[in-house]
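Margin note from the TA: students keep mixing up input and output lines. Inputs are the sequences; the output is the structure of the whole complex. Example:
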Amino acid sequence: MKIDNNNHFIFSGHDTVELAKKFGTPLYVLSEDIIRKNAIKIIKAFEKENVDFQIIYAGKALLNIAMCYIIKDLNMGLDVVSGGELYTAKKASFPMEKIYFHGNNKSKEELNMAIDLGVGRIVVDSEYELELLNHLCIEKNKKASVLFRINPGIEAHTHKYIQTGQEDSKFGISIKQAKNFIEKARNMQGIIIKGLHCHIGSQILEEYPYKIAAKIMMDLIKELKIKYKLVIEELNLGGGFGIEYLKGDSCFSVEKIVNEILKTIQDQSLKYQVKIPKIIIEPGRYVVGNAGITLYEIGAIKSIPGIRKYVSVNGGMVDNPRTALYDAKYHAVIANKVNEKEKELVSISGKCCESGDMLIWDIPLPVCEPGDILAVLATGAYNYSMASNYNRIPKPPMILLKGSKAEIIVKGETYEDIIRNDKIPTWLLE
Ligand SMILES: Cc1ncc(COP(=O)(O)O)c(C=O)c1O
């Protein structure tokens, strides 16, 4: 590899070629400075508006113990969706009262864990869960503070696999059934109704779906007040703030979107004479997406004349399944040739035994050679958290950058880790 430090890609103040040399590849690189900058931008946007609010980080985007420490330090809440995420938060001594427990099929064990640990809010997703939760709370002589996940019937303009707000969805209670559902919960001994929740999708780059969702939820708040004299104290509008994956992606301003959402809520509360609830949002991607990159080493390169040039890297859908799953788009640079002119159109493929194992289709890059370091950008969200061991490939390590410091926060897996839970049945040993 040609060594020319001036031609190296610098991420969050660090030479990525040096990082690859020191920690190996594939490598997840996460910048604490960028995470903090993103989070503070949202917090400031709310502070400016003078409302009661809470920002919750959606742990599904990327969670590990170090992330919990950062989120705790930022004084944010945490959205978890499984016993595993809750356990991670517990191990990081995350304040349980700031945890929101989501999920469309929480198990009895997970609900018991949440009740025993005293999580702040359980976001009830179905009638089955409501009854189970109530029953478990009564058994323990405890009460759970809940939000109801309402499906407001909105389609946010994004890829269909990440639309979760339309009526035909596995998540939440249909807006049409919401009143009867909530009426039922009012009479439950183990349930304290705190508020409503909705999440209308992900990678949303425009404000109007949020405004429509806020209006629909305020309508429901008004109806609940009129019909049952029920006061809704909290309104959680979910996550979904989009980020810039490709140069030129339209990117909204957080200040503008927060301002528009709050204005809609304020207008509706005035019109309906209902108290403005505490406003909660739970961004994941916006907090960590552009704070992460993944470094790979280029290996096999194959040209099919007149068709395509495949450039393979030493990772792929195992560490980033989003292109294969959602046809997600990414930008990348050759970290050791960052200032060189783009000379060829190539497609970046992974190393898995799967034709769909692609990271990027048709990207212009400088001439790629085996041994070059490829940096795929904006991989902080839904990469590590969605990684698998397909083909028994060990998961890469993750490092955290802060100022000039760089340390491992998740160790890379070894082949021993891969077989750790394997057992040989007795009859095969006979
Ligand atoms: C209920 C809920 N809240 C928050 C999020 C976070 O979304 P994003 O990372 O797009 O902000 C999701 C993502 O699927 C979600 O389902």
